[in-house]
Amino acid sequence: MSAFYDIFLRTAESVWKVKTILGKILNCPLEKRREDLEFFYATLLGVQIELSDKDSDDDTIVVQYKDEVIPLSRYDLRVSIHYERSAFMRNYSEEWEKFVCVIIADMLCNRLNCEGIVVRNYHTVIDRFMFMERFYTTRNQDD
User: Fold this and answer.
1) By C-alpha distance, which of 8, 142, 4, 2 is closest to 74?
2) DSSP 3-state percent helix, strand, coil across the chain (nearest 5)
3) pLDDT digits (tens, 9 = 90+) for 1-29
4) pLDDT mean over 103-127
C-alpha cells in the first residue's frame, strides 16, 4: 500500500529555480528524469519526490478547501511525494506523511514567496499556504 501527496505551487519562478530550492531543503540533489522534459526526482529515506510542470489533466480537477472550490489549473508547478507504507512506522505513517509534506510545502512557499496547496490523491486538501496573508498577519501582530 502506498500514499500519494501533491504540492501545487503558484509561482512565476522557473522549474530550475524551484529545483534548486527544493534540493537545498531536502539536502539532496534532484536528478533529471528525462532529457526532453523538465522533470526532476530524488529518493530520500524511502520517499520519492518529483518536481514537474503540471499535468494537462490538472486543468479539469477542482478540490475543495473549507468553503472554497479551487481549480488546480490555477497552479504552475507540482511536487509529487510518494511514500512506500512498508518503510515507515505502522501506526503513525499517515501522520508522518502529512507532516513531511506540509513542512516541505511551507518551506517552498516561504522561500519562493508564493501560494501553495497540499492535496492527497487529488481529493483531500491537507493545507493551503498563502504567503502574503501570513506575512501581513505576522506584521500586524508585531505593530
Assistant:
1) 8
2) 40, 35, 25
3) 556 899 999 998 988 899 999 999 999 88
4) 89
The number of domains in the chain is 1
Question: Residue 65 belongs to what domain range?
Answer: 2-142
CATH number at residue 75: 3.30.70.2920
In terms of residues, how long is the chain?
Answer: 143
| Grid cell locating 29 | 540533489
Report helix, strand or coil for 30.
coil
In this prediction, residue 123 carries a pLDDT of 77
Strands across the sheet with 2-10, in order? 31-32, 39-44, 47-53, 77-84, 2-10, 115-120, 124-130
